[in-house]
Amino acid sequence: METTNCSQIREALIRRLNDEIAVQTVLNQCVFSLPFKCLDERATDVFVEKMLGDLYRVHDAGITTSHLFAQGIHITGHKAEVFEEVAKRLGVGYLAGTFEVSCKESEVQDAILAVGQCSALATFEVAAHKPIVEEDPVKTRVHRSLNQWKPDYIKQISRNVPVKGRKARHSFDFVSFPQEADLTNTVAVQVLPPSHSPQAQAERYGFLVLDTEQLAPYDTWKRFAIVTKVESWGDRPLALVRDLSEETITLLSGEEDKVEAIVPQVMAQLSKVA
Amino acid sequence: MASDKFFLVPQIVATKKYIDISRSEIERTLNDEGGEVEYDWEETITDEFNVEWNVTLKLNISCKSPLMFAWSIALKLHQIRIDGIDWHSTFCDPEGTKHRGWHRHRFDRKKQSADGQRLPTTVLEGASGTTAFLIRTLKEMNISLSGVDHGNYELFTDQRGINPSSE
Predict the structure, then answer these.
(1) Cβ separation of B54 and A136 shorter than 8 Å?
(2) Radius of gyration, alpha carbons of chain A
(3) What are the φ/ψ torsions at residue A84 (nearest 5 degrees)?
(4) What is the reported pLDDT for B150?
(5) Cβ of B42: how many Cβ atoms within 10 Å?
(6) Residue (of A185, A191, A263) closest to A217 by Cα position
(7) Are B13 and B41 in contact (CB under 8 A)?
(8) Distance, in angstroms, between B121 CA and closest chain A CA?
(9) Are A234 and B89 an interchain contact pair (Cβ–Cβ within 8 Å)?
(10) Cβ of A237 and B161 within 8 Å?
(11) Which residues pair with A131 in a beta bridge?
(12) B139 secondary structure, DSSP code
């Protein structure tokens, strides 16, 4: 390769870097956008904050960690150790989710490049992040098994059935309506995930039941509760659900597929008029 | 074998979604969990042919940094971001125009990713603090929360859900 050509390429590269490096002032900090592409398809942002005297704090504001979390990539203890090691080798630190270093004015340029490099390197996990197609949600499984079970004596199985109580409107996830009400029971099915609070979930179910108690036509309906992620439920909320339902089944995380075998048996049993 | 439901993304993004949790509960969790929370829930989505589908969605919120510019919110399907709002000092929209600041991610079905498509948004202009961040971003992303805050049950119950004072 000719020397002149190398120089031209160098000049062009410098021009390119010059064009690509942007800066703006945000909250009294200089924010540099560097032409290092992260694997989540963004430019690298580096913040430079003037501290006392000749001291500067150069950091990524925790953007890398935050954007990894947004992708669903959690910084476990092991990953944090790797980030600390990467940062250490490049002369910076990784503290509380932020790549950062304190330095003198004469070292700021090196610090900006090092923090930028850490920020870009830390996104390597994005390359391995692929879609995980979960098995069907529990409600889909229940719906499917109800439709497969549906015997001749059932007229219709409805989804998201509104129920008007004395004080409020509620809904059951599924209700099976019989051909002849004298011969077969109507069965209301409710899927109960633990939500953010199993106690609150159980109490809301309790309100539905008590608000429709002794109120036609709901007073004759049999209630079938399907409690998911039962390991997250406490004894008390679970006891409340059991107390308010003719039948309750509980599923541990990972055994949701069992619901398709259980639902037809329970439905057949509850539909029978005693 | 389960098949992906990325074909539902336009409907998921446009549909009003509901998470059974209050804003106060999210703020408490952010406070307790070092500024990061993740929730998953099931949502019923109707496609263009009026067929109903149940999907499991996940919401990731990060407010870990003292600087709001580093905060992010993302809605995910099959563990992949399909919608979200965050900040970059510079970015290009799908037409190649340069912008600065807050933007909303748009899902690209071909790439199965919302990383590369960013549209500028003014939704967080002038906002400060977690409350404003949550109210404005969740509204923009069509996610509604429960108006009822059940408080912190853990204050009154042990891990089995039993209230010690009633025993």
Answers:
(1) yes
(2) 30
(3) -60, -40
(4) 64
(5) 15
(6) A185
(7) no
(8) 17
(9) no
(10) yes
(11) none
(12) H
B33: number of Cβ within 10 Å? 11
Pick out chain B residues at pLDDT < 50: 158-167
- List the structure tokens of A259: 């619901």
Residues of chain B found within 8 Å of residue A196, distances taken between Cβ atoms: 20-21, 25, 39, 150
Interface contact B67-A196, CB threshold 8 A? no
Rounded to 5°, angle at Cα A143 from A137 and A144: 90
Chain B interface, mutation test: which of A71, A135, A160, A195, most B Cβ atoms within 10 Å? A71
Residue B8 sits at φ, ψ, to 5 deg, of -90, 0
Whether A139 sits inside 8 A of B58 (CB atoms) is: no
Coil/strand/helix, residue B112 = coil
Interface predicted TM-score (ipTM) of this complex, two decimals: 0.84
Asked if B72 and A70 come within 8 Å (Cβ–Cβ), the reply is yes
* B3–A140 C-beta distance less than 8 A: no
Question: Tell me, what DSSP letter sits at residue A134?
Answer: P
- Per-residue pLDDT tens digits for B14-23: 999 999 889 9
Q: Are A129 and A84 a contacting pair, CB within 8 Å? A: no
Q: What is the CA radius of gyration of chain B?
A: 18
DSSP element (H, E) containing A141: helix A138-149
Which mean pLDDT values do the consecutive 10-residue runs of chain A (274 residues) have?
Answer: 78 93 92 91 93 94 94 90 96 95 95 96 89 83 91 90 90 91 90 85 92 90 94 92 95 89 94 80
The residue among A192, A188, A190 whose CA lies nearest residue A230 is A192
Question: Using the 8-state DSSP alphabet, how is residue B61 labeled?
Answer: E
A54, amino acid identity:
D
Q: Do B67 and A62 touch (CB under 8 A)?
A: yes
> Which of B62, B124, B141, B156 has the most A C-beta neighbours within 10 Å, making it the best mutation to test the interface with A?
B62
Q: How do beta strands B118-120 and B98-106 pair?
A: antiparallel
Nearest by CB to residue B69, choosing from A26, A97, A134, is A26
Of B66, B128, B105, nearest to A62 (Cα)?
Answer: B66
Taking CA–CA distances from A41, the nearest residue in chain B reads B116
Pairing mode, strands B17-19 and A247-250: unpaired
Burial of residue A22 (CB within 10 Å: 0-12, 13-18, 19+) is: middle
Using an 8 Å CB-CB cutoff, list chain B residues near A198. 161
Residues in chain B: 167
